[in-house]
Amino acid sequence: MTIKVLALCGSGRRDSLNRKLLDVAARGAHEAGGEITFISSADYRLPLYEGDFEHEHGVPDTVRNLQRLFAEHTALLIASPEHNGGYTASLKNTIDWISRPLASGEPGIRLIATKVAAVVSASPGPMGGVRSMLGMRGVLEKLGAIVIPQGFSLGAAHLAFTEAGRLSDEKADAEVRLVGARLVETTRQLSRQQAERGCATHTPSRPIESDA
Ligand SMILES: Cc1cc2nc3c(=O)[nH]c(=O)nc-3n(C[C@H](O)[C@H](O)[C@H](O)COP(=O)(O)O)c2cc1C
Q1: Higher local confidence (pLDDT), 56 or 205
Q2: Which residue's alpha carbon is nearest to atom 4 within ligand 1?
Q3: 165: phi > 0 → left, psi -120 to 50 → alpha, else beta; which?
Q4: CA-nearest residue, atom 18 of ligand 1
Q5: From the CB of 123, is ligand 1 less than 6 Å away?
Q6: pLDDT tens digit string along 39-58?
Q7: What residue spans carry the region label Disordered (predicted)?
């Protein structure tokens, strides 16, 4: 069973450390049989979410395209950079827009609630963006995603990569690849169970509250 993984980098910066870390995790996902689609915040531009903007202009086409992309994938692998002790405004804004109702009227939140997800983070700082990683896990869990326990926060990331895009610490490289591999294996396992039960995708184990 091929598992489609959407690998989302919260930084669109050239030479992004989070993109490099995402590549390592995605390598693990690929080795486990995942089919990876990469996307970063450089691939789209979104207005800052405001209720009045949505009321007056509707949901932008860019968001509709992102919602379609999310719908086409079962697993979500996020590299979440840290800004001032939390995830970036840009990444959260992306998720906020995606959670808005689909063109069909269905809740956009289901695009996250039906996912199995993993989060990694990289920073030149000593803690590697761990606060961003944990914060982003909390957001995904709140939306109903199954977030696997494995994750990785890479400190001193500006010194960590070889020219070939691997982590020079082989143990760390294996651990990050394992995040991707576990994501694919867990998604495959859940998809099999759900296929046996006759439902197409991961169904949230609890009701999704729209405003709690
Ligand atoms: C506004 C701002 C705030 C930042 N705050 C933090 C922080 O709280 N913790 C941290 O580890 N790094 C922080 N950084 C450093 C970023 O983690 C660093 O620039 C990182 O390389 C960004 O990710 P990227 O390389 O994928 O673009 C901050 C950077 C900026 C621009």
Answers
A1: 56
A2: 83
A3: left
A4: 123
A5: yes
A6: 999 999 999 999 999 999 99
A7: 190-212
And the tokens for 167? Answer: 């982590």
What backbone torsions phi and psi does residue 183 show, to the nearest 5 degrees?
-60, -45
The DSSP code for 4 is E
- Which of 16, 23, 24, 84 for mutating ligand 1's site (highest number of atoms within 8 Å of CB)? 84
Q: Which two tokens stand for residue 72?
A: 């086409």
3-state secondary structure of 133: helix
Instruction: Kindly tell me if the per-residue pLDDT of 203 is higher than 70.
Output: no
- Looking at residue 201, its pLDDT comes to 56
Q: What is the mean pLDDT of the chain?
A: 94
Ligand 1 center to residue 86 CA distance, Å? 10
Helix (H, G, I), strand (E, B) or coil at 73: coil
Confirm or reject: Cβ of 85 under 6 Å from ligand 1. Answer: yes
Centre of ligand 1 to C-alpha 49, Å, is 22
Q: What is the pLDDT, as a whole number, of residue 202? A: 58
Query: Would you report the helix, strand and coil content of the chain in percent, each value rounded to 5?
Result: 45, 15, 40
User: Is CATH 3.40.50.300 the classification given to domain 3-197?
Assistant: no
> Ligand 1 pocket, 23 CB below 6 A?
no
- In the chain, where the domains are located: 3-197
CA of 14 to the centre of ligand 1 (A): 14
Q: pLDDT value at position 198?
A: 83
Please tell me if the CB atom of residue 10 comes closer than 6 angstroms to any atom of ligand 1: no
Q: What confidence tens digit (pLDDT) does each residue in 85-132 have? A: 999 999 999 999 999 999 999 999 999 999 999 999 999 999 999 999
